Amino acid sequence: MKAARNPSLAAGAAIVAFLVATAIVGPLLATADPLAIDLANSLARPSLQHPLGCDVLGRDVLARIVYGARLSLGVSVSVVALSMIVGSLIGGAAGMAGGWIDEVIMRGVDIVLAFPGILLAIALAAVLGPGLMDLVIALSAMGWTTYARLVRGEVLTLREREYVHAAETLGARPGRILLRHLLPAMAGPVAVQATFGIGGIVGAEAALSFLGLGALPPTPSWGNMLDAGRAFMLVAPYLTMAPGIAIGTAILGFNLLGDGLAQIAGTRS
Questions:
Q1: What predicted TM-score, i.e. pTM, was given to this entire model?
Q2: Which residues pair with 60 in a beta bridge?
């Protein structure tokens, strides 16, 4: 399907490409140091020198937004990759094994799903403590179940295909069939889910950082920028508007991209 016939794909790809370019190239082009304190510019309004103004410590908001993009996208991609690997292996094993093994695994998945995802992430982040690695672990704990259920359902369908029976007849072990034949065949649905997942994790990471359970100041993060700026909403609303728009744009971009990919793959998220 051409991009002209799939506006969601075109718009989402453009937004995501811009965000990725910002995360990769932006810090190299930024003229201001996101950590440099300049109290003379405390709460300075947007200007040519500081297009998005400065925070209470005089740090350039635009520079912090740009560096925050690298952190938010890096954490989100890491979480989705870890969740996808763990969930795919668990769901694939359940689907291939069947019987009581499948029941035990999927009931365990249901138990995890019974807890609200963001609350589970908050609880784990509070136990593990603030920090990027602990943040990735906490967010992955709520994300792998989606991939487990998706992959398990796909495996139950694909395992009845003729090429799978042929592989079994030739003596291929279940693990080999799963890794070499089944998982590659479901790349489309998994990729769609991963795209939506990145958008969701961007919001979740911002929420945890806002609560002080993610990246710690002075590390630039969209979430902790929101937290730091809320005390100055009346006198400097741009301190919360800038990271808020960045978070909303990232979520919108990945959701549009996921919707476009779903139309191509013929799936429904």
A1: 0.88
A2: 54
